[in-house]
Amino acid sequence: MERSPTFRLFNTLLATMVAILVGFFCVRLKVIKPAEGHLKGLGFFIGSMVFPLLIFNTVATAELHSVNYGVIAACSLGKIAVMILTWLLAYVTFQPKRSQGQRILTASVFAFFSVASNDFAIGFPVIDALYDKDMSIYIAGNALVGSFVFIPLTMIAFAIGGAIRTGEGQSNWQIFVNTMYDLSTNPVIFMTFAGLLFKIMFGFSLVEENGKIKLPHPFSDFIELFTSPFAMSALFLTGTSLRSPQISVWAVGMVLMKVVVCAYLSYLFATFLVHGEGVKPLQDFTFFYGSIPTSSAPIVFASQFDPEAAELIATAVLFGLVLACPIMFITAYSLNEQGDPTSSMTILRQVQFSADAGSIFCGLVFCACLLLIRQRWSFTCPARQLLFFYGLVLTAYAAVSLPINPIISNATCEEFNDAGLRTPLVVAFSWLQSSASCMLLALQFMYPCEQKASSNKPWKGFGFACGCLLFALLPAFFATPNTINEICDHEESGSLQLCLNVIWSCVKLVIATCLAIYALCRVPRESTSSDSSSESDHSVEDIENLLQVSHQVAEFRTMALHVRSGTLSRLESGAADWGRFIPRGVILTITIMNIVKVLTQVINAALVHFAFNENMGSFASMLLLECALEHAQLIVLMASLFFDAHFMPSYWPSYLRSSLETPAVQPGQSGTPPAMARGWVGP
Fold it and tell me: Which residues cross the membrane (predicted)?
């Protein structure tokens, strides 16, 4: 019985995850101890022997005379854009107090992670499973570009960074000589040029077996013997590097750059570079190839050039697999149904219906939480108050979006197709959608500008919320709201409203990107200024802030004394931190999600407006991803709240217990800390 492409894809991804988990559990069970050097031999074998031989074999046996070079160019341009952006962000913002050479090494590792597709372990078997015709030649072409362009560039960056780091005090000529020596002795670069030389001089000796070009015997047997354990060994090494997987900004950011941003940009470039009849499968391939997760090669390079970043890279590799799996499954299904737009439309409506239903449930939970904790939410804090309005707007947004879906009723969509944006329910849908987007931008603005401690400025948060609600009226009446055209199957290609939608999405993306860069660059300046400033340099406002913080520190010390004496539990002391400090982790999570969501909206709206793309193939997957990000915002908000260390684990057990039991010490009596006696509502 022949297995379906989706089933074969599932088996491939399952085997990959099992190989990683085997290495992870071997370290956790202390069967293997990396600190004692148990993995040095395996790392040398993979990084210095097997991987260079794979590069040599790929370059020497590449047959690219029959490929569409626009596909290779689109994938390569998407990688170049992502690589440059990642390198610049990492160099400028990731631990900027380190030496210049170390910053170059770390930025190079991060940049290589964003372009290092797992072509050998995942790419070839997945493409062979999904496509009836031979599309693996495009995997080989991209692997060749990676071997001949991206890896040498990365090695050059590693050589320059290493020479600068170890050559402090040396002349520029000495650093140049050390760099050239490292490049000439690097096995990856050596094997890349050796494969190209073999291709030019001895290309006539290549043989064809089972439709594939191979090296002549016994060289092919020798290389196959050495490289056959690469897939398992590299994935196993990934698992052993994963000491304690924890969600971090950089791990999530690198994964999004590789799996989402690279896929969307590759498809965008393919729209302009791949033309002719029957090119839709080739354009779809660029999106699928961009969503292939990162290989284990960055872990090998990180172990060699930046050991401190090895664990972060390994965590990002695992997160990449977790995120890429659903995207690849959706894409695989869309590719199988690319000739039936009706099926893609049905799936899109079901995804939006499920997201809206889940959001309504989360909205009810959110409102119930607010009723339970009431003033302990600290509504005087502007950021927390804006989070409150953001949750309410999302709840109303889901409640309005659900009846628009044709699964519930076709009446609204029929009225929208006839009257356009003048339908009252559609106007409300657009206004709430734009209001939520504006509030996310306001929260992203507060993240770097507000102090870490909660401030007592209730009118500031209320003013931000009202401003967002008023400003959202402009796009609500003039721009088409996202996802509604696809749900209602509305033909609006090239219209003015859709053009305004593209402009509005681009404005949001530019503002979100600028705020992200500002937030990343502000942290180093704050750290530097705080180290060099003196008490005489503080303004009146700074002194008030210092007094406010000192007051909080005094209360915290008082609370700590009660914890030690047993009067107050540690859970209750952690609960006070929820009202004491701004929930920066929650804001960071939803703003990262917002940047990715806005990027998908810009690309999708532009492809519909300028390229007239239909809901088929990989573009259907892109629409599904946008729909999930747009309508599952409240689910993400609730997940980030319940994973907050102070909101859920530290507060709710103590609150529920105190609400069911009579407290041993009544508020206001001796032994009760001041913050808990008055019901902490902010400093």
Answer: 6-27, 39-59, 71-92, 104-127, 139-164, 185-207, 219-237, 249-274, 286-305, 312-333, 353-374, 386-408, 428-447, 459-480, 500-521
Full residue range of the structural domain in which residue 392 is found: 342-525+544-677
29 falls within a domain: no
For residue 252, the SS3 value is helix
Which amino acid type is present at position 611? A
As a whole number of angstroms, the distance between CA 442 and CA 448 comes to: 11
Q: Is 531 part of any domain?
A: no
Question: Which residue, among 169, 72, 182, has the nearest Cα to 119 in the 3D structure?
Answer: 72
Does residue 157 sit in the same domain as residue 268? yes
Nearest to 581 by CA among 640, 677, 531, 645: 645
In a shared domain, residues 320 and 379: no
Helices (H), 374-472: 382-404, 411-419, 424-449, 458-471
Q: Does the pTM exceed 0.70?
A: no
What are the 10-residue block averages of pLDDT along the chain, 683 residues in total? 59 76 83 82 82 82 76 92 90 82 90 86 71 70 81 83 72 72 75 84 83 82 85 79 66 86 89 80 84 82 83 82 74 59 75 89 88 75 88 93 87 77 83 93 86 74 91 88 79 67 89 83 51 39 43 46 44 53 81 85 80 69 82 86 63 45 38 34 30
Residue 232, domain CATH: 1.20.1530
What are phi and psi for residue 583, nearest 5 degrees?
A: -70, 75
